[in-house]
Amino acid sequence: MDSVYRKPRFTYVNLDGKTVTAMAIFVEGQKMEGHHVFDIGYAVPEPYREQGRATNIVKTAVSELEHGLPKTGILEFFVQAVVSTNNGASQQVAKNTISENPKVITDSVSDLPALH
Questions:
Q1: pLDDT tens column, 18-61
Q2: Distance from C-alpha of 116 to C-alpha of 104, rounded to nearest angstrom
Q3: In angstroms, how far is CA 68 from the centroid of its own chain?
Q4: Which of 16, 24, 93, 99 shows the smallest number of beta carbons within 10 Å?
Q5: What's the farthest any 2 CA atoms get from each other in the chain?
Q6: How many CB atoms lie within 10 A of CB 84?
Q7: Range of the structural domain that residue 93 is part of
Q8: Is 7 strand, coil or helix?
Q9: Cα separation of 35 and 69, whole Å?
Q10: What is the DSSP letter of 75?
């Protein structure tokens, strides 16, 4: 089994009945400055966009992690996102929830400009 599948993953969803209206996924990444790092991805289906759902689920999910992870011995952690420079909506979510001062990078997966 590839080691990527052994990393802790946390998935949060908001539902309207059985329909997912927002989702956030965290995967443990490489430690930074001795602290755990979680890579985040988030998505909102098109009919539910522009309603603050992505910002809401990211804030709620990070709060859940802040309350749950200390029970596992993780007292401090970082959350990071890599967002395409062409995705203004996702950039706004990251600005509102993760950092107001991203670094411009080249995404190692797509080889395209991105914000970290």
A1: 999 999 999 999 999 999 999 999 999 999 999 999 999 999 99
A2: 6
A3: 16
A4: 16
A5: 42
A6: 14
A7: 3-115
A8: coil
A9: 12
A10: -
